[in-house]
Amino acid sequence: MCCSLGSYINEDLYYEDWYSVWSRENFEGLLGCFIENMKLFSPYDELMRVDFSKILKEIVLMSGAATLTYKAYLMFMGKYEEEFTKSNLKGMKITLNQYFFIHFSLNFCESTTSPYYINFNVSDISKQLRLQLRSEQCTP
Fold it and tell me: Name one GO biological process term (predicted).
């Protein structure tokens, strides 16, 4: 028996959605807004060719998670900032805040499941859509 994402087992031992109808409707509204915003980007057509629709919900949820974790990060840095003055990415001119988002993205990539990789083949994405980080010491 496989459990359903976004569900819990109630007192009668049945799967039940943990979210309300109101939450689902608002999430659908958020998805619609996100899609409209994505259409403003020039490589939108390229994104649609990459089976982007299958990962859209995950991206919206990760956007919300990034906001919450960034707030927690700022609170932590408010207390312990003097202990973290430099990034551990040597030779790169990035701030600690930029490093946070790079690290968040890397964690996202490491935590995706194998079916996710099958649906989203990164090698098919054009160079326009890729984020490339280059050190000053590296040659292109």
Answer: proteolysis
